[in-house]
Amino acid sequence: MVVGRFLVTKHFLPLIKNDGTGKLIYITSKSVSISAPDHHGEVTGYGMAKAAANQQLKSLALDFQRDNVPITTLAFEPGFIKTKLTGWLGRVDIEEACTGMVDIIEKLSPDMSGLFMNWNGKTIPWSGGRQMSSDSNRRVVLESSSSTRE
C-alpha cells in the first residue's frame, strides 16, 4: 500500500506539474491519528500504511510551497462508512461522505495544502496532537485545537 501510492504519485507528478496547477488527494484513515481519543492500535499495520501516505502528502505540501509549485495536497478520512464490508454498522452513508469530500475538493485552496480532514471538513490531528505548517519556507509547529477532533 505504501510503495504503490508512492510510485503512482511519483509518475503522475510530472503530468500535474506540466498542467501548471493541480490537487493531489489521498483517501486515508483516522487510524493514523495517535492523538485520537479512541486510538487503540488494533489496526497497527493499516494505520502505518495510511500514516505513510499522510506523511508523503505533508512532505510534498512543504516541498511544493518551498519550490512555488501550484499543487495542493490533502489527505481525507471518509469516515466509518455504512457498507456491506462494515456490516452496515458505519455511521456515515457513502453518498453523504462522497458529497462532502467533493464539495471540499472543489473549494480546496493552496493554504489548505498538507491538511488531514474528514469528509465534512474538520481537520484531524494525526501527529500526536500537533500539525506541521509552512510559513514563508519556515517550518512552524502549531498546536491543534481539541475542537478539531471528531
Automatic annotation (TrEMBL):
One family name in Pfam for this protein: adh_short
InterPro entries in the cross-refs: Fungal_SecMetab_SDRs, NAD(P)-bd_dom_sf, SDR_fam
Gene3D superfamilies: NAD(P)-binding Rossmann-like Domain
Cross-referenced SUPFAM superfamilies: NAD(P)-binding Rossmann-fold domains
One Gene Ontology cellular component annotation held by this UniProt entry: cytoplasm
Region (Disordered): 127-150
Protein known as: Uncharacterized protein
